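Input sequence (158 aa), recorded before submission:
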Amino acid sequence: MNILILAMSMGHGGAETHVLTLSRALRRSGNEVTVASAGGCLVGALTAAGVRHVRLPLDRRSPLAVMRSASGIVSLCGRECFDVIHAHGRLPAFAAHIARRLSRTVPPAVVTVHGIYDPHAPGARFSTWGERTVAVSDDIADYTAATYRIPRAGIAVI
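Predicted structure, token format:
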């Protein structure tokens, strides 16, 4: 498979470490993996594992940054034939959603929810969860299902 993983950044943190671990495992399994993020100190570890990194402003909430990210995703998907997008977090998921609406070359998305997001935060009403949703714990899956009206049975827990 050819997989595009979206993360806000590749700095230090739980979601970023998860993206690095997942990317390495997918590469070892023979998959092609590209990670798009705003960059950070873990990019070197990605490239050392044979994972390509593309810089996109996926860590910024401004409408201009979201459109730049979505445009970058469309451009990447136009150049490569990705089988799936795996977004980690709300901003990357939203950018993937916008990209998919802009172009038929953008594949379906899986979204991994790493934390509890405030449903009343600015922009929260634009949250999207992809064709498949994954949560990093049962508590987060329960909260996401109840708060964002996603059927709990449709959320996989890792």
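Checked by second reader. The mean pLDDT is 92.
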